[in-house]
Amino acid sequence: MKSAETPLHKVQGLGAAHSGTGHFWRERVTSVALIPLSLWFGFVMLGLVDTNEVVMVQFLAHPWNALLMAAFAVTSLYHMSLGLQVVIDDYVHTAGMKIFLLFAVRCVVIATIATCVFALIRIASV
């Protein structure tokens, strides 16, 4: 069976990257995980509307609440980075800018996740 690729295309290695399926499933899994986490987060925020900072810190000092908040933050930030990667891949056409933007998104997401988890650990250890 003959390939539809031109000889130049085969030499340049511009075939499929074979990474789209894994990316697709990671997006779907994080979106499904965010459904109960978002419902929990919305319920918690509505319950803490008329409270002060002390009550919020006391709420996050409980291990389950801190764990769920960390899971919500990590999952939502990872899901956001997956979505931004698709947008950058689809709409940024220069290789240098694409690499820079993907690196910047990755750095911002890692720094934000580290900050959130560190803050939750500090609050939970009080």
The CATH H-level superfamily is Fumarate reductase/succinate dehydrogenase, transmembrane subunit
CATH domain fold name: 3 helical TM bundles of succinate and fumarate reductases
CATH architecture: Up-down Bundle
Report the portion of residues in β strands: under 5%
Note the main sheet. none
Secondary-structure element order, as H and E?
HHHHH
**Can you tell me the number of structural domains?**
1
Rg calculated over all Cα atoms: 21 Å
Q: What is the CATH first-level class name?
A: Mainly Alpha
What this model shows, in words?
By secondary structure, this protein is an all-alpha fold. It has a single domain, classed as 3 helical TM bundles of succinate and fumarate reductases. 81% of the residues lie in helices and 0% in strands. The protein is built from five helices and no strands. It has helices at residues 7-12, 20-47, 53-61, 63-91, 95-124. The protein starts with 6 loop residues before the first helix and ends with a helix.
Topology of this protein?
Blueprint: H1 7-12, H2 20-47, H3 53-61, H4 63-91, H5 95-124
Helix pairs in contact: 2-4, 4-5
